[in-house]
Design a protein that fits this description.
Elements (H helix, E strand, L loop, with lengths): L14 E2 L18 E6 L9 E5 L7 E3 L20 E8 L5 E2 L1 H4 L9 E5 L1 H4 L13 E2 L1 H9 L4 E3 L12 H9 L4 E4 L9 E9 L7 E9 L1
Parallel strand pairs: 5-7, 6-8, 7-9, 9-10
Antiparallel strand pairs: 1-12, 2-3, 4-10, 4-12, 5-11, 11-12
Helix pairs in contact: 3-4
This protein binds zinc ion.
Length: 219
């Protein structure tokens, strides 16, 4: 961290906005647990370390493909690379409950934009805690607003774009049904609002409804 509280950028100014995957980490309540175990272990005399990794497709920093909520929709392997490589705008949200059209209005979001929402979720360090039910989510009204503006990509800083108690299905359907690619589980705590360059590449899972991703940003 530097004096202004933002993370010191690494090599070439890139900031890693993905969260670490580890055994026992938080996951969506009805999704599988995360297990990462050494199957071959040099400490036990094996010639190399090799792990088995078991996790749901919507764990940690990950992406949603349309087929997650849209019958017959595209899978993760069909994602156009320009959905997650290029300019992206980080918008800081003040609302402690949900992202609403009223707060988005002044930002004049335009067609084709990649928008990442930084909410109070990031400051919680959510990836080190148990599941939080009242995380800040994209309201279904805001999801339809973003779909109307034909944004390219939406990123959020918790495990789901929709809420736990409400708008879970509606928000996913509104975004994914409009062909918007969704990044979830970001850590935007060290990132200033404004224009950035984004690279986020999810694993190429055939017909995948979701896949873990590494995401990085540069001012
Ligand atoms: Zn999702």
């Amino acid at each position: 961290m530097c004096a202004n509280g933002y993370r010191t950028p690494g090599e070439e100014g890139w900031i890693d906005v993905s969260v670490p995957l580890r055994s026992g980490m938080v996951h969506w309540p009805d999704n599988p647990p995360v297990r990462i175990e050494r199957m071959l272990d040099m400490e036990r005399g094996d010639v190399a370390n090799v792990s088995t990794i078991s996790l749901g497709s919507h764990t940690g920093t990950h992406m949603d493909a349309p087929i997650h909520f849209v019958r017959g929709g595209e899978g993760m392997d069909r994602m156009p690379l320009d959905a997650t490589i290029g300019r992206a705008r980080v918008i800081e949200i003040q609302d402690p409950v949900s992202i609403k059209p009223d707060e988005l209005g002044p930002h004049e979001i335009g067609r084709g934009e990649r928008i990442l929402f930084k909410t109070r979720n990031s400051s919680l360090g959510w990836w080190t805690h148990d599941f939080i039910e009242d995380f800040v989510y994209v309201s279904q009204e805001a999801a339809r607003y973003l779909a109307d503006r034909e944004v390219r990509t939406v990123g959020v800083d918790y495990l789901s774009v929709g809420g736990f108690w409400r708008d879970g299905v509606e928000t996913h359907q509104a975004l994914l049904g409009a062909g918007i690619w969704v990044i979830e589980g970001l850590d935007l705590s060290g990132v200033e609002p404004g224009e950035h360059e984004l690279i986020c590449l999810p694993l190429k899972v055939e017909d995948g409804d979701g896949a873990p991703a590494r995401a990085i940003l540069r001012r």
